[in-house]
Amino acid sequence: MKLKLLSTKPIIRLRNILDTATVLFWVLLFIGFQSNAQELTLNNALSHKENSIIKIASYTAQGDLENLKIALHDGLDNKLTVNQIKEVLVHLYAYAGFPRSIRGLQTFLQVLEDRKNTEILDERGVEASPITDSRDKYDRGKEILETLVGRSLDGPKPAYQEFSPEMDRFLKEHLFADIFERDVLTHKQRELVTISVIASLGTLEPMLKSHLNLSLNVGWQPEQLREFTKVLDGTTTTENAKAAKLILKEVPDNRK
């Protein structure tokens, strides 16, 4: 009696299916790994909006109005609202003075008019909410500053504040209550404006170091701050950008 041999075709097909499934598994695993790596990179990178905030603040602080025009156009194209940019320009007067801030606002108005004439309508964005907190303004400012630095400020005051109590009151009541209390920009965004201005003005290393620490406290990552200093390479002097990089290297060590 002759034995009937089984066909090997089903076995070959099954093997091909398994081989295909294995290849597909590894391809999907690789794609997933790449996606996760890319997402991690993107999460640690500054956004286009944040890059624009740095450039707008830096150029305004230095009075570089021609480059400021370009940065303002880019900021609007990157979907910063009109009110967000206006708030950046208002915020920085506390660090660069009224003249720089006003020239920035005047330049911004010109940019908006130019865009309007070319039929570009930019989003106005939300207006600042009214301040309803009726507590003493000094106490409100002190509370906000304590949130930024991450500790109580009930201990001894710095020498300059002991020497000039007026300066201490102005800082608490105006800078940290009147300005930081406004909600168009977050505290995180306001710190980005602040370090952009201070670094671009130069020779303000102690204050820059302090605000880089505050920047870490409010959520900026070391990688993002390193990227911030690289943006400065294109907006301010070589000396200022180099100084910012050197100061940043000291900041994480002081936080260990």
From TrEMBL:
Lineage: Bacteria, Pseudomonadati, Bacteroidota, Flavobacteriia, Flavobacteriales
Protein name: Carboxymuconolactone decarboxylase
Listed InterPro entries: 4CMD/NDH-1_regulator, AhpD-like, CMD-like
Listed GO MF terms: peroxiredoxin activity
Source organism: Zobellia amurskyensis
Domain Carboxymuconolactone decarboxylase-like residue range list: 39-104, 165-250
Coiled coil regions in record: none
